[in-house]
Amino acid sequence: MKILRRSFPIYIQMLRLTSGQWSVSADKELPVLYRSDHFIVVDKRFDLKVNSDDPTDTVTVATLLRHQYPDLVDSNAFHGFRFVHRLDYATSGCLCIALTKKGARWGHKAFANRYVTKHYLALIRGHLSSDKGQVIDVDVAIGKDSSETDCHRMCSSDNAVCREPRDARTTIVLLQHGFYGEEPVSKVLLIPHTGRTHQLRVHCCHLGHCIVGDYMYSRRTDTAPFRMMLHALRLIIPMKRETVSVISCDPFVPEIDNLWKPLTTFTTVDDFLGNSENSLTNLIGNLSTLPSVSI
C-alpha cells in the first residue's frame, strides 16, 4: 500500500492586532496540506465559513479556493467545489475537498461508514481531573436543544430539553494542565467516533469543561478569547489505492498564543498516538473492506 503523505511548512495562524482585538487577515491564501488527482486538503482558518449562499459573505473557503486555484473550480458543483465534510465556522484545521465526482462519492461513503479517522485539539475551561487516568470515553447521545429557537444548538441526552437524540461517542485524552490568561484550562486531544453536529463541543460541556471561546455552549458568556480553541489536527481517509493522511500544525502553543501557559504535561499527541497506533493498518482497519477509487 502506498501512503500519500505530504510534508507541510510550519504554519502559524496569521493574525493582526487591531484596537486591542485579534482578527484573521482575510486576504491570505489557504495553506494546502495535501493534493492528489482526487483530493485537496487545506488548513482552514478559524472564523471562516466553508461556503455560503449569502452574497455578502465574500470570504469563505470556497471563494478563497476559487481565487487561489481557478483551474479546480467545477461549474457542476455547488459553490464550485465538492466538500467531503465540513468544519464549524469557528473551528480551524484539516478540511478535505474532492476534486472528482468519484473522489466525492467515496469520501462521503467513507464518512458515512465511519472509515475516517479525525483528531482534534482543544483548550477547555478548568483542569480536567486525571484521577481516572488520562483517557476518558464519553458515550452520550446528542440531540437538538428544543429550548433554543434562534440557533442550531445541540445538547446531551440527559438534558430535559433534548429532542431526537442519536448515539455519539468521543475519546478525550488529557494532554496538559495550564492557564489561559489567569483562568485554569486543560489541553486535550479529542477523537470522535461518530459525527454528530457539534459533538465535541457538546461532549466537553457535558463533562463541565466547555471549550475556551465557545460562545454558543458557554451560553454566550465566553467572549474574551479571540477565537474558539478547537482545531482539526489530523485527518485520515483510507482507500485501496490512495490514503489521504494529513497532520496540520498545533496552534495551541505559547509560541503562537502567549496567553496559553502550560504547567503540567501528562502526555503528548505524538506519544499517545505512537502508543495507540502501532501501524497505519491497525488504525484504519482492513483495507480489503474499503471501496475502491480508480486512479
Written description of the protein model:
This protein has helices at 61-68, 101-112, 199-206, 269-276, 280-284; strands spanning 15-18, 21-24, 32-35, 39-44, 82-83, 92-98, 117-125, 135-139, 142-145, 154-156, 162-166, 169-180, 183-192, 230-237, 244-247, 260-265. The model is unreliable at 1-26, 278-288 and 291-295 (pLDDT under 50). It is an alpha+beta fold and 295 residues long. The chain is 14% helix and 32% strand. It is built from five helices and 16 strands. Strand 5 (82-83) and strand 6 form a beta hairpin.
> How many H/I helices?
5
Kindly state the number of beta strands. Answer: 16
Overall morphology: globular
Q: What percentage of the residues does DSSP assign to strands (E)?
A: 25-35%
Structural class: alpha+beta
Radius of gyration: 19 Å
Low-pLDDT runs of 5+ residues are 1-26, 278-288, 291-295
Written as H for each helix and E for each strand, in order along the chain, the element string is EEEEHEEHEEEEEEEHEEEHH
Q: Roughly how many Å apart are the termini? A: 14 Å
Average pLDDT, to the nearest integer? 86
Question: Brief overview, please?
Answer:
The chain is α+β, with helices and mostly antiparallel strands. It is 14% helix and 32% strand. Strands 3, 4, 5, 6, 7, 8, 12, 13, 14, 15 and 16 form an eleven-stranded mixed sheet that branches. The chain has a three-stranded antiparallel sheet with strand order 10-9-11. The protein has a two-stranded antiparallel ribbon with strand order 1-2.
